[in-house]
């Protein structure tokens, strides 16, 4: 298969979807890999390293999209890329369709096959291509939160761990999944008082068992959230309903009950955000303030640590990319249900329920496209 790896063009996005090691692996299986010049630079991979691994370097993004049967990238295509995506082209990347109606319609129009990293799902319901980035973002959320709690950044001026004779900060983590667990671990490690809230009692039981003693668990409901935010210094939003818009757990009216200078990090912003007042920001301008509450809503947090993120992401995506390249998307998706669940848009039809529901569009049965043999 002919594979194209474009350079990411979203603001401050320095990750790349395939490393030189990935190129070597794809080549070993007989595929041709075209990498856009400079695509790996931000992650520390020079063009010559890709060439040594067997890739060919193309000078422009147009050439890269133009030649490829399969595009592998990191972030969802942005407006300037919409027109480059061709009918029948397989695009394997994060899409987060449920948070962008414009992107959804653009991909419908393209008639491409859109296989979304974020909805590839294992039988235990875990999301293997979200996990590595969630680990990075969860850990980063505490680093970012600690920084914006400093007075010069308009935060409360509180040190997460406190010092002898001074109480530590209160960190509230909404969602006890991957992001929430990693955030809680980091915050607890720095000595903060941490509370994790989730709607899953089973998850809370597990967390209660494995977390250090400065981490409490609490069931998530509006009443408890209203109470907890009054004493929180740092709030991390890490909830997820797979493939759907994030639930709005903190509404605008609640902000007035919070302490001035509280910091809210909405990691779930890539699914629309779990605070009503959240709007996506970038690493170039990550925060804004509403009602004295500092909002940090960077939609691609792992982009700031591209070295770690690229290796973590590609460790997980490469085995799936290989299946797609070796078998073609139909056979690969027929034979691997995890991959099949990644299919979101095919030839202009929505085949993923959460996306169809988010934008009130018709849902088409994916089997229509996978050409399943009739069982007699
Ligand atoms: N901004 C970024 O750069 C970035 C990076 C990685 C992940 N993310 C996003 O972070 C979010 C969380 O990802 P994850 O991997 O931790 O997901 P996850 O599925 O592991 O965890 C989500 C948790 O939220 C819980 N939840 C659902 N509804 C809830 C509610 N009303 N109250 C409390 N908890 C609730 C679920 O029970 C689950 O435990 C996702 O939206 C993901 O896309 C963002």
From TrEMBL:
GO terms for biological process: L-alanine catabolic process. NAD(+) binds at residues 134, 198, 203, 220, 239-240, 267-270, 298-301. Residues 149-297 form the Alanine dehydrogenase/pyridine nucleotide transhydrogenase NAD(H)-binding domain. Its EC number is 1.4.1.1. The keyword Nucleotide-binding applies. Substrate binds at residues 15, 75. Residues 4-137 form the Alanine dehydrogenase/pyridine nucleotide transhydrogenase N-terminal domain. The active site is at 96 (proton donor/acceptor), 270 (proton donor/acceptor). GO terms for molecular function: alanine dehydrogenase activity; nucleotide binding. It catalyses: L-alanine + NAD(+) + H2O = pyruvate + NH4(+) + NADH + H(+). Pfam families: AlaDh_PNT_C, AlaDh_PNT_N. One of its GO terms (cellular component) is plasma membrane. Keywords: NAD, Nucleotide-binding, Oxidoreductase. It comes from the Bacteria. It is an enzyme of class 1 (oxidoreductase). Belongs to the AlaDH/PNT family. This is Alanine dehydrogenase.
């Amino acid at each position: 298969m002919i594979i194209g790896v474009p350079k990411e063009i979203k603001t401050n996005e320095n990750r790349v979807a395939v490393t030189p090691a990935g190129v070597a692996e794809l080549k070993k299986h007989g595929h041709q890999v075209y990498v856009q010049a400079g695509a790996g630079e931000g992650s520390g991979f020079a063009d010559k390293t890709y060439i040594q691994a067997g890739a060919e370097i193309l000078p422009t993004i147009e050439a890269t999209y133009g030649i490829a049967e399969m595009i592998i990238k990191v972030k969802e295509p942005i407006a300037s890329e919409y027109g480059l995506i061709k009918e029948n082209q397989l695009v394997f990347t994060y899409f987060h369709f449920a948070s962008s109606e414009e992107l959804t319609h653009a991909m419908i129009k393209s008639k491409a096959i859109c296989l979304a990293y974020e909805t590839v799902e294992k039988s235990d319901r875990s999301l293997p291509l979200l996990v590595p980035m969630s680990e990075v973002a969860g850990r980063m959320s505490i680093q970012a939160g600690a920084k914006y709690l400093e007075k010069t950044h308009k935060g409360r001026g509180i040190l997460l761990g406190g010092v002898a004779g001074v109480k530590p900060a209160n960190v509230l983590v909404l969602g006890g999944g991957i992001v929430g667990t990693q955030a809680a671990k980091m915050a607890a490690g720095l000595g903060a008082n941490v509370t994790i809230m989730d709607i899953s009692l089973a998850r809370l039981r597990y967390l209660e068992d494995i977390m250090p003693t400065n981490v409490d668990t609490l069931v998530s409901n509006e009443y408890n959230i209203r109470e907890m935010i009054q004493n929180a210094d740092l709030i991390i939003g890490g909830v997820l309903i797979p493939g759907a818009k994030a639930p709005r757990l903190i509404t605008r009216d609640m902000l007035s009950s919070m302490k001035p200078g509280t910091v809210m990090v909405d990691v779930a912003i890539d699914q629309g955000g779990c605070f009503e007042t959240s709007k996506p920001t970038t690493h170039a301008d990550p925060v804004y303030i509403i009602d004295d509450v500092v909002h940090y809503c960077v939609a691609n947090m792992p982009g700031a640590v591209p070295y770690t993120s690229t290796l973590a992401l590609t460790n997980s995506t490469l085995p799936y990319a290989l299946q797609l390249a070796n078998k073609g998307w139909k056979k690969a998706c027929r034979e691997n249900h995890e991959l099949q669940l990644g299919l979101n848009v095919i030839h202009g039809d929505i085949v993923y329920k959460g996306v169809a529901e988010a934008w009130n569009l018709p849902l088409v049965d994916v089997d229509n496209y996978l050409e399943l043999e009739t069982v007699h």
